[in-house]
Amino acid sequence: MLDLRRLRCFLVVSEELHFGRAAARLHLSQPPLTRQISALEAELGFRLFDRSSRNVTLTAEGRHFLPYARALLEQVERTAAIGHKLAAGSVGHLALGFASSIALSDLFSQAVRDFCSAHPQVQLTVEEGASTAQWSQIAEGRLDVGLSRLHPPADRSDIEVTCLGQEPLIAAVASDSPLAAQERVTLSELSEHPLIAFPTDYGSGLNDSIETLYRRHGLTPRRAPTGKQITSLIALVAAGRGVAVVPQCVQTLVRHGVTYRPLAEAHATVPLLAMTRRQERSPLVRAFVEILRRSVQSIG
To answer: Record's CDD domains (predicted)?
Structure first.
């Protein structure tokens, strides 16, 4: 492995063609500089300079070696600069996962916008997926941050959870339904209609919150067609296949034939969670979570 200090000495001497001036640039006295060049020549197996009492010139081998030495030192400097940027969180890659309903929230769009504005050289990739799928993706490093509606189980000690708040749940009903004419609807009224939701094996945090809410009121949801996208649930409501209980942000999804109504139950909410690997040290991950916190405060 070539000594980078010796290469830098060679580069400066090749530019100055004078050991005294080169030593001054390198903040060395001339004898140590001469020893560095001699050591490099011994390591390479050829002379780099022809030296006389009046002149210093590059040998043929030195002239041929010079561009390679310069390119290597430039690459080292670029590598060091990238390392500093990575440590500062100004470059790199961030993989963000999210549950489908979260993409419709102001929080999601504002956090992504603010992060990309603050970190323009960072490549951000986003991937929609169920809450339970995000747990393994985060633990395995395929996702850096997950936005979820469902707390991981207690045995997932490898996942760190930050609760960003609770979002009200609302009802999505067909516009020609009597429920659409009401100012608010109750869960009891909704329970008389088929409940359109994600598949039971999808791993949805929204499903979990809705089922818990129904059970708390002694109600059992009537099963209806299912979908794996929040847009699919709303489309099924428009088709008259039942009702849906969705986060409040979903009402920005305007669909002909669908009316959104608040629930009468004040405590009907669903959590909004940010998940990361436990003891995550990436400055990019910390920066994104901090932006999420600030976005919650500014929107809230």
So the answer is: PBP2_LTTR_aromatics_like (cd08414)
Spatial contact of 145 and 280, defined as CB atoms under 8 Å apart: no
E strands in the chain: 49-51, 56-58, 91-98, 121-128, 145-148, 159-174, 194-197, 222-226, 244-247, 258-262, 269-277
Q: In this predicted model, what pLDDT tens digit does every residue of 47-90 receive, in sequence order?
A: 999 887 778 999 999 899 999 999 888 888 877 766 666 665 55
Model confidence, pTM: 0.69
Residue 198 CA: distances (Å) to CA of 139, 144, 146, 279:
24, 25, 19, 32
CATH superfamily of 166-269: Periplasmic binding protein-like II (3.40.190.10)
In this structure, of 86-100, 172-186, 188-202, 211-225, the range with the lowest mean pLDDT score is 86-100
CATH no. for 4-88: 1.10.10.10
pLDDT band at 300 (very low <50, low <70, confident <90, very high): low
3-state secondary structure of 116: helix
In the numeric block, the tokens 């633990």 are attached to 139
User: The tokens of 291 are what?
Assistant: 């932006």
